[in-house]
Design a protein that fits this description.
Layout lengths: L5 E5 L12 H12 L5 E4 L11 H15 L5 E4 L5 H9 L8 E5 L8 H14 L4 E5 L1 H4 L5 H10 L3 E6 L4 H10 L5 E4 L5 H6 L4 E4 L6 H12 L3 H18 L6 H10 L15 H13 L1
Helix pairs in contact: 1-2, 3-4, 4-6, 6-7, 9-10, 10-12, 11-12
Length: 291
């Protein structure tokens, strides 16, 4: 799955003041990324506020991204949840012909056992006609999918091709990289650990920050893939402050504050999220002015 190596970006969903989707801003963000080195686009993930997007809005968002992209980059679609039957129903009723893979989050709130995780993704794998990227993000789901479970799924199902690992645990990344079957991709879901994971044998990142600084961020990951650690870490150090800032309150409020400062879209988010505080926005604007 070469299409999933490098820098993928978890696209935001820009909103207007009335909380409707700002399709013009979304088009501009897609073009900005396509033209500045991003390797693939991820639609309707956590950063896209997928849990507060309606089914109709999701279709319209996919249409906007697809029209802006014009087939230039591979696309990945988020389809996941903690109701296995509902996830399978959405897979079966979605035209997936344009997508390189789906990104499916580990079941949240329900707190399944490791066997529950396995059976959930087994059912999704068997229902899905295209490749599946597992998405482990225990900080949001309240339960860690352990490396042994991920590796078991990778070995048992040919169309489970990758994991977006976002446990913010370097040891867990290394365990996955050490034990994964050949060809299975370990993708960082933590911007702060993305370079280290890539240098250790990971396949790159699905990034939040990368969509606002695609040229430098994708260059950093490419250098990491090529083993050029010194040059890559020089870029990584430039991003350390802003990486901390965008996650200081919540995601995607932080990255939307960045995009507002860059002139791409408003910083509007949907409840229960709230926009970044004035203090945080001031720090973000200061960073961008220096950058």
């Amino acid at each position: 799955m070469n299409a999933l190596i490098g820098t993928g970006v978890a696209l935001v969903t820009p909103f207007k003041e009335d909380l409707s989707v700002d399709h013009e801003a979304l088009t501009n963000i897609v073009n900005f990324n396509v033209e500045n080195g991003t390797n693939y686009l991820v639609i309707s993930g956590t950063t896209g506020e997928s849990v507060t997007i309606t089914k109709e809005e999701k279709k319209d968002i996919v249409s906007t991204v697809s029209k802006a992209n014009k087939g230039r980059l591979p696309m990945v679609l988020g389809i996941g949840g903690n109701n296995t039957a509902a996830v399978i129903d959405e897979i079966k009723n979605t035209d997936l012909s344009e997508f390189a893979a789906i990104l499916s989050v580990a079941p949240y709130y329900s707190k399944p056992t490791q066997e529950g995780f396995y059976q959930h993704f087994k059912a999704i794998s068997e229902a899905c006609p295209i490749p599946v990227i597992l998405y482990n993000v225990p900080g949001r789901t309240a339960k860690n999918m352990e490396p042994a479970t991920t590796i078991r799924l990778a070995k048992d199902f040919q169309n489970i091709v990758a994991v977006k690992e976002a446990g913010n645990n370097q040891q867990q990344y290394l365990e996955l990289i050490k034990n994964k079957p050949e060809g299975f991709l370990v993708i960082s879901g933590d911007d702060d650990l993305a370079l280290g994971t890539t240098l250790a044998g990971g396949a790159g990142v699905i990034s939040v920050l990368g969509q606002a600084f695609p040229k430098d961020f994708s260059k950093m990951i490419q250098l990491g893939l090529e083993g050029h650690s010194k040059g890559a870490y020089q870029i990584h150090c430039k991003f350390m402050e802003i990486t901390s800032l965008i996650f200081a309150e919540n995601n995607p409020a932080g990255i939307k504050a960045v995009f507002e400062a860059l002139g791409f879209c408003r910083d509007t988010v949907r409840l229960p999220l709230v926009p970044a505080s004035q203090e945080l926005k001031s720090k973000i604007k200061s960073y961008i002015a220096q950058y």
